[in-house]
Amino acid sequence: MATPKEMMTTWDSIQFGAVLPSFEDPKNKVRSKFNSFNYKVADWRVEKPVFNRNLCIDCDFCWVFCPDSCFEVEEVVNKRGKKQAKIVGINYDLCKGCGVCVEVCPTPIKSLLMFSEFVDNDDALKQWPKKEDKKD
Amino acid sequence: MATKYELKSKEIWDGNTAASHALRQAQVDVVAAYPITPSTPIVQNYASFLADGYVDGEFVMVESEHSAMSACVGAAAAGGRVATATSSQGYALMAEVLYQASGMRLPIVMTVVNRALASPLNIHGDHGDMYLGRDAGWIHLIANNPQEAYDMTLCAFKVAEDKSVRLPVTTNQDGFLVSHTAQVVEPLDDDTAYKFIGDYTPLNPMLDTSNPATYGAQTEEEWHFEFKASQHKALMESPAVIDEVFAEFEKLTGRKYNRVESYKLEDADIALVVMGSAYETAMVAVDRAREQGIKVGLVMPRSFRPFPYNEMAEKLKNIKAVAALDRSCPMGAMGALYNEVSGALSANGQAAIMTNYIYGLGGRDTTAEHILEVIKETNENAKAGKRVTDLQGFINLRGPKLSFN
Amino acid sequence: MLQIRWHSRAGQGAVTGAKALADVMARTGKYVQAYSVYGAEKRGAPMSAYDKIDDKPILDHSKWMIPNYVLVIDPSLVFQEEIVDNTTDDTVFIVTSHMDKEDLISMAKHLEGRKVFVVDAIKISQEEIGRAIPNTPMLGAFMKVSEIIPFEDFLVSIEDILSKFPRKIIDGNLRAIKRAYEEVK
């Protein structure tokens, strides 16, 4: 069966109305055992997205489109004093390498690109296309 | 703060007006509706009350009944007190979302004005829509006149929102025969009515962003059965709460309601089971039959779901023959009341002779005389000690006699 | 139980008239039922409305009745034989017409030998209210013929029932009711 054994419950102890909480402890953001966060799908991946912070414009498209909520964000205050979600990285435990984030990335040179699972992220960033490359 | 509505101690209201005033007094947060005959005036009146400042809430006009119930589910999940109204085709279009509402345990109140289902198209009253929704996991309360339409709607909120129930409730009244028939209604004043229902306490409201929750989670074979079983348990155990609410309502108003209503059953040999406005017409028929020496009584489930099996059997324990009158065409079976009552009797080792009658489809007039005929036929069965009439007959149907055995 | 049947065209106010009569009677402590038989009606289609008035709660929800009074508020419907359906010799007919009783009955044979009263509710409503809404004048005529409650009490109740309307309309209706009360014969 698809569901881990420890998640099985009996009729007298199930969540009321199939309403599942995201956190067992919302204050400390401790996720409930029913949260799909607990399903690790990363082993399936053969290609991975690599994130280039230097090119990112924080449009958050990748965060919106990612089907597995892999993008990690930080709350920051921008130049105009407004709160903004800053993309800081990818949770590789959740990413199954579908590549949607790369498709939707709007920067002239993509700030997300797919690399083989075995390429080191630092090496990947060194291989990133340059502006001059594009003009050729 | 909503303006108080000045009500007289006795109002001349039809069922729709009565239901809409009950919704107003409940101070519903969100009404999402797509008006349909004959329940249109409920929605229309509610919108007027809101526009005139008698309600603090939101009225959401949507593009279909499917959307209406969907918006109700959303608003209820967000944490509001929610109500809507519908009939017939609208009810049918809602069917999918009715199951969502009950599965998510959202205490939505829906004032249903019962109307026939097409085809052929018909705007008049029968119980086709109520029977369509009977397995949807809702509590279904029955009102026989405008006063009861008002009373049941007030009670519906209190039953639905009880911590141990938390299930959606429909209140049912017959299209036109109740919904458009003006009668004397004795309403409560606004404060008393609201105090009876009480403030709404949301459970897992989605607007509480610090406690995010998933509604309508996917459960598949690991949990679905358990969820449904626990939902069924809530419905099966809701009678205790319904009784409590009815008792409290009686204390407040002096009007007593029971999950099984009965009339002149104490010394009766035979009984009719009938729901809706025809129950009151049948009272007239019972009185006439008794003048002719036929000891007949009436029973009615005030709550069609949860069906009061044991109470029904208890009421009918000394009855020799029972006729169940269904206001819906069962299409290839006996009517639902026949089946439920037969089941209730057999589960309790009782063996009254059971027959089924179909009546009043599409608003076909059913008079006391028609019901008197049924009483006489049922009396024949009782006298013979076995069934000598047809198993399923039709009342006031034009053409050669139609019946099934 | 007092049973009243209204014959009207959809839009002439028979439903409102029936409900107003029920309201008036309920204020005297009676139990009432006011309903109408609806179809997929358009304005102008013939329709009927009903009042039941009794000293005890009215349980019978069937539409069928043997009317004590038949109120016809449209002049052309007088000629439809349906208006005598389910009536008895004691049934009182109050009909709207510009004709006098004898001329009317000579044309509407089904009313021969019946207890018929005539009032020109259309003309009255046009002149006093400004619109051909013959329901309230018919109530005035009904009060005169039936003597069911004192006319003064009726006027007090109906004024309160009409209170949601502008003063001009209330006054017009009251004048129409009083005129019909005087003119019915």
Radius of gyration of chain C: 15 Å
Main sheet makeup of chain C: 6 strands, mixed
Which structural class fits the helix and strand makeup of chain B?
alpha/beta
Helix percentage of chain B: 40-55%
Examine the secondary-structure arrangement and name the CATH architecture of the largest domain in chain B. 3-Layer(aba) Sandwich
Say what the CATH topology of chain C is. Answer: Pyruvate-ferredoxin Oxidoreductase, domain 3
Task: Provide mean pLDDT of chain B, rounded.
Answer: 95
Q: What letter string, H or E per element, gives the SSE order of chain C?
A: EHEEEEHEHHHH
How many domains of chain B? The number is: 2
Keyphrases for this structure?
heterotrimer, B: 405 residues, alpha/beta, Rossmann fold, 2 domains, 7-stranded mixed beta sheet, 17 strands, C: 185 residues, Pyruvate-ferredoxin Oxidoreductase, domain 3, 6-stranded mixed beta sheet, 6 helices, 6 strands, globular
Q: What's this entry about, in short?
A:
The complex is a heterotrimer of chains A (136), B (405) and C (185). Chain B is α/β, with parallel strands linked by helices.
Structure, explained:
The complex is a heterotrimer of chains A (136), B (405) and C (185). Chain A has 136 residues and is of the alpha+beta class. Chain A has a domain at 40-127: Alpha-Beta Plaits (2-Layer Sandwich). Chain A has helices at residues 61-65, 100-104, 121-126, 131-135; strands spanning 20-21, 23-25, 30-31, 47-51, 71-77, 83-90, 112-116. Chain A has a two-stranded antiparallel sheet with strand order 2-3. Chain A has a two-stranded antiparallel ribbon with strand order 4-7. The longest helix of chain A has 6 residues, at 121-126. Chain A is globular and about 65 Å long. Chain B has 405 residues and is α/β, with parallel strands linked by helices. Chain B has 2 domains: 11-253, Thiamin diphosphate (ThDP)-binding fold, Pyr/PP domains (Rossmann fold, 3-Layer(aba) Sandwich); 260-404, Rossmann fold (3-Layer(aba) Sandwich). The mean pLDDT of chain B is 95. In chain C, 46% of the residues are buried. Chain C has a single domain (2-183), classed as Pyruvate-ferredoxin Oxidoreductase, domain 3 (3-Layer(aba) Sandwich). Helices cover 37% and strands 21% of the residues of chain C. Chain C starts with a strand and ends with a helix. Chains in contact: A-B, B-C. At the A-B interface, strand 1 of A face strand 9 and helix 8 of B. Strand 1 (20-21) of chain A pairs antiparallel with strand 9 of chain B.
